[in-house]
């Protein structure tokens, strides 16, 4: 018997357990290929002869709380925004939890201070997670609940 498709709405609650970030509101954007996470105070450093990135992830929209995170640096990527401007961004891969699904997602780190949603979930993440989007719905999946993984 075929498993039912995993359907999400235009907006959903997500968590990034490896980063210790719980309950972020994300905009699902099938028009963007890459996912993006609002990050500030970004700095690259070496750990065990590998490049890592340290940054502050911002949780909340009206009242913001900063959370310091560290992750291995995967690459840098030039991203062309919807307004046509190109920007070089650091890229990390971390586990994303949406509803009862968890899978690795590649995120670019960018200042999304002026954006309503701190996370943009792009089409590559949706394909990798085998997600179907119904843009007429919002918050179809419940807020993820789990035990946080220890910091890297």
From TrEMBL:
Pfam families the UniProt entry points to: Zn_protease (PF05618)
Top-rank lineage group of the source organism: Bacteria
Keyword terms: Hydrolase, Protease
Residue span, Retropepsin-like aspartic endopeptidase domain: 7-144
NADP in keyword set: no
InterPro entries for this protein: Asp_endopeptidase (IPR008503), Peptidase_aspartic_dom_sf (IPR021109)
Protein name per UniProt: ATP-dependent zinc protease
Gene Ontology molecular function terms on file: peptidase activity
A biological-process GO annotation: proteolysis
Organism: Entomomonas moraniae
Record-linked Gene3D superfamilies: Acid Proteases
